[in-house]
Every structure is written in C-alpha cells, then in structure tokens.
Amino acid sequence: MRRTIGTMRALFLQTLALVPAFALVACGARTSLLEFDTPGEGGASSASASSSGASAGESCSEELCNGLDDDCDGQIDEESPTSGAACLTGQTGPCANGRLSCVDGAPACIPDIQPVPELCGDEVDNNCDGKIDEGCVPATNGCSDGTREAFVEEDIYPLIAGCAGGFTVPGILIDPLPQCGFGGGNTGQNPEGLGCSASDLCARGFHICKGADDVALHAPTGCDGAVAEPGLFFATRQGSTGCAYCALGDNMDPDVCTGESCALDCATSRITANDLFGCGSVGRRPRLCGVLDRTSGDLCEALKEPWDCGGDGYNESNHVIKPGAAGGGVLCCAD
C-alpha cells in the first residue's frame, strides 16, 4: 500500500508538470522565439515594414523622388532631400531661376516667376522668350503705344501728343506715377488700362500736360486743329475752382481757392480739382481756360463713357478713371 501511494504521487507530479505545455498549445501560443515579431525600423514590425515600403523585401529609408513610398509613411515623394533647392530652369529673363520639386516621380526645376505677356517699355523679357519688348512700337511720338489720336502730325507738333486709351488708377490732377510700365494705349496690349494710371498713356520722356500754360508752351496754336475725329476728349492736369473757370493764377490760399469757390486768381492745387479740362471734339466750352477748349462738365456728364469722374462734383480730377479705350485719353507734353 505504501508503494502504491508513492507511485501515485509521482504520477501526479509528472501530470502537473505537463499542464502548462498543454495549456499553451491549446491556446495557440507560440512555442518558438522565431515565431514572434521583431521590431523593425521606426518601431514597426519587420513584416509590416516590408509590406508598406517601396517594394516587397525592402526596408524603409529616406524619401526620394522616385514614385515610391521610401520612408513607409503612406505618402509618395512628399519630401525628397532636394525639394526646394535652388536651380536653373533653362529659360531666360525672370524665369531663369527656380526651385526643385518632385513632379511625377522625377525632379523638376519650377520657375520662381512664371512667364506673362510681354509688357512694353519696362525693358524686361516678361514672357521669357529671350527677347525684350518684342512687338512693342517704339514710343518716340509721345504715346506709349506709338500711335497718336490728337496732334497727329509729328513734324508739326513734335512736343505734344494726344494719346488715347484707358486707365483704372484714379486721379489725374496731381501727376500720377506710371503703374503698368507705360503699357497703356488704345492700340497697345492693355487698351482698357487695367492697373494703369493716366501717365501710362504717355511715352517715356513725356508727361501729362500740366494745364493750359504747358499746352501753350508745347503747341503755340493751342487746341486749334488738334482733334479731328468726333467724340474724343484729351485731358490735362489743369485745376479749376468751379464754374468752368480754370485755376490759372498763383493764389494758394485754401480758404479762397477751393473746388467750389469759382475764384479767378487761384493756382492749381489738390483742392482745386473741379472738372477736367483739355482739348477735344466733345465736352463743354470752358468760360476761362487759356488755350484749352473743352471741359468735362459736372461729374463728366458732357463726356461719353467710359469716362467716369466719381461721385464728388467738386473733386472730379482727383477721382477720374476711364476703364475703356474709346473716347480719348490725355495730352502728353515732352519733358
């Protein structure tokens, strides 16, 4: 009996030793270290790394511009080492310099400045074709587009020109700066004058005539015979105190010389900005304005569209725009 009990105890202990192994097998546990995942690069398992990388069997690496997800982040060519580096595009002018970018799996040099239509008079190869100001008419006749619409006989009037076209930057009284590289003019590339000031209608070396005295200096006969075609008005920077009187004097008293005082001895200034004055075949006759023969009337009502003098009836020449090529433009006098 003692021997039997000892034998049973031994068998019981052997059975207990086998229970963990059976339990592991029953639960599907792995019994070999070779079956466990080992960490891959970046904390991912080796299996997942190979499946999300550039191709099966390759490990993750620095992203390249090759159409593959080299760094295993689920994105392709998102940031290659050369992206953003300075490069030469092979183009000319402002398009010559660029930055590297990855395009369709291959590095490409993208210009910092894209080509735009050629802009006359700025001496820049705007369209990046290796030529500067090609197709532009040399503006030797006073107008930026090379054509005159008033004082057309250059041999008779070499120092003054009537230049038609649009401008959308407001104001003419205080000499406006060119805003579109002298690219205005009704026969130029920007006839409506989008982004241009009135000064962009004049060629380099010419300015918007300051007023009656400036016109008389450059055209001794004044407006006589200057405008042959109907419906045209060419403005100057002549000021007025209202009542169709031009400011031809030298009085600068701001209490007397305003756009509504109708005073006769005032000088042109920013506040004597009533109406527009110039030469033309349309508009009203001024009461007193030296050699100038036309005025715009209140809010340009005597002129045709696209002249637009704004909504202040005492301040038209500070607000005028002309968003269209028809109807004239400005008088340009040689510097």
Explain what the structure shows.
Pfam families: Cu-binding_MopE. Residues 1-25 form the signal peptide. This protein is α+β, with helices and mostly antiparallel strands and 335 residues long. Among the domains are: 43-80, no CATH class; 140-335, no CATH class. The chain has helices at residues 2-26, 46-52, 212-218, 316-319; strands at residues 86-88, 97-103, 106-111, 160-164, 206-208, 233-235, 240-242, 245-246, 277-280, 294-295, 328-334. The strands form 3 sheets. Strands 4, 5, 6, 9, 10 and 11 form a 6-stranded mixed beta sheet that branches. The chain has a 3-stranded antiparallel beta sheet with strand order 1-2-3, with no helix packed on it. The chain has a two-stranded antiparallel ribbon with strand order 7-8. β2 (97-103) and β3 form a beta hairpin. The radius of gyration is 41 Å and the shape is elongated. The termini are far apart. The model is unreliable at 18-54 (pLDDT under 50).
